Amino acid sequence: MAYYWFKAFHLIGIVVWFAGLFYLVRLFVYHAEASQQPEPAQTILKNQYVIMEKRLYNIITTPGMAVTVAMAIGLISTEPEVLKSGWLHIKLAFVVALLGYHFYCGRIMKRLEKNECQWTGQQFRALNEAPTVLLVVIVLLAVFKNQLPLDLTTWLIFALVVAMAASIQLYAKKRRKDQEKLTQLNQEKELYKVTGT
């Protein structure tokens, strides 16, 4: 029975942790793009994002990570022989990478607060795709274990990474064009006000 409790809370922890990671880096995107706003909006937005990032990281994301790791240890304690499995070693390597990503986000958060981070919104969008790839690999390893179809999986992960990178680039291009149109429209309005034609 302990196994099922550990597994249930492990899954809950994963959902909370990943929700926090995905939203945290999305806040980083908005934080970085706030630099393009005029004052006082820029300062107001950045201060608000600092508060939101801290609360998300400390109240949701980090506790989600802690529950995930604690319940994973509980799961392994109910079936210690699983530690001999090769798939688990690979999965744990990806989990370590995910933990590194989590703490790296914590460092970025502190640098953003001090206005020391020079990353652009587009770079943060790319960073936000990393946990998606890790999630796919970790879940596939947990489900398939030693029967993971490596050829198909490798191509699926590669296709996922390419699709995400392409979508980031297309979205950034669309945003730039929309911004250019808005700027041009505003300039035309100002010209009309000045000249009346």
What features would you highlight for this structure?
197 residues; mainly alpha; 0% strand
Q: Report the biggest beta sheet as strand number plus sense, adding barrel if it closes.
A: none
Count up the domains.
1
Summed up, the helix count is: 6
Share of β-strand residues: under 5%
In the predicted model, the low-confidence regions spanning at least 5 consecutive residues are none
Principal-axes shape call: elongated
Number of separate strands: 0
Report the span from N to C terminus: 78 Å
| Average pLDDT number | 90
- N-to-C SSE string, H for helix and E for strand: HHHHHH
Class by helix and strand content?
Answer: mainly alpha
Tell me roughly what share of residues is in helical segments.
over 70%
Provide the gyration radius in Å.
Answer: 22 Å
Organism: Gloeothece citriformis (strain PCC 7424) (Cyanothece sp. (strain PCC 7424))
Membrane topology: Multi-pass membrane protein
Catalytic activity: protoporphyrinogen IX + 3 A = protoporphyrin IX + 3 AH2
GO cellular component, one term: plasma membrane
